[in-house]
Design brief:
This protein has about 140 residues and is of the alpha+beta class. The chain is built from one helix and seven strands. The longest helix has 28 residues.
Length: about 140
C-alpha cells in the first residue's frame, strides 16, 4: 500500500509540474491583443494635453492600410468604451524623428480635460484594425 501511495503522489507532482505552467501560458495569451500590429498611445511627459500615437508595426504605414485615403480618423475612448476624443491626421504617418522611432503623430486633445479619460485609441476604417491602450 505504501508503494501505491508513493506512485500516486509522484504522478500528482508530475501532473502539477506540467499543468500549472500550461494554465499560466494559456491565461496570459488569451487577452485577444495582438503584438506588433496595433498602436502605442502615450501622453505627453510634460503633462500637456497631447497624445503621441505610434504604429507598433511600421509595415502597416501605407496607403493600402487606409484604403487609399490620405487622412485617417483617430478615436479615443474611455474605460467604458465611450468616445471622448476624435480627430483626423494625414495618412500615412510621416513623423519618425529621423528614423529614431516608429511612425507616429502628435494629437492635441481638446478639451484638455479629456486626456485624463482616455484609456485607448483606434484608427477608424483601417485594415488591419489599428488600436492600442494608453501606456
Amino acid at each position: 500500500m505504501e508503494g501505491a501511495s508513493r506512485t500516486r503522489l509522484v504522478a500528482l507532482a508530475v501532473l502539477l509540474a506540467v499543468s500549472v505552467p500550461l494554465v499560466v501560458i494559456a491565461a496570459g495569451g488569451g487577452s485577444g491583443e495582438t503584438s506588433g500590429t496595433g498602436l502605442r498611445v502615450e501622453p505627453s511627459p510634460q503633462g500637456l494635453p497631447i497624445l503621441v500615437i505610434y504604429l507598433e508595426d511600421s509595415a502597416v504605414n501605407k496607403l493600402e492600410t487606409n484604403h487609399g485615403r490620405r487622412r485617417v480618423a483617430v478615436e479615443c475612448l474611455d474605460n467604458s468604451g465611450e468616445v471622448v476624443f476624435t480627430g483626423n491626421k494625414v495618412w500615412p504617418f510621416l513623423d519618425t524623428d529621423g528614423g529614431k522611432y516608429n511612425p507616429h503623430v502628435h494629437m492635441v486633445v481638446r478639451p484638455s480635460a479629456a486626456i485624463q479619460q482616455i484609456a485607448r485609441c483606434r484608427l477608424r476604417g483601417t485594415d488591419p484594425p489599428l488600436e492600442g491602450r494608453r501606456v
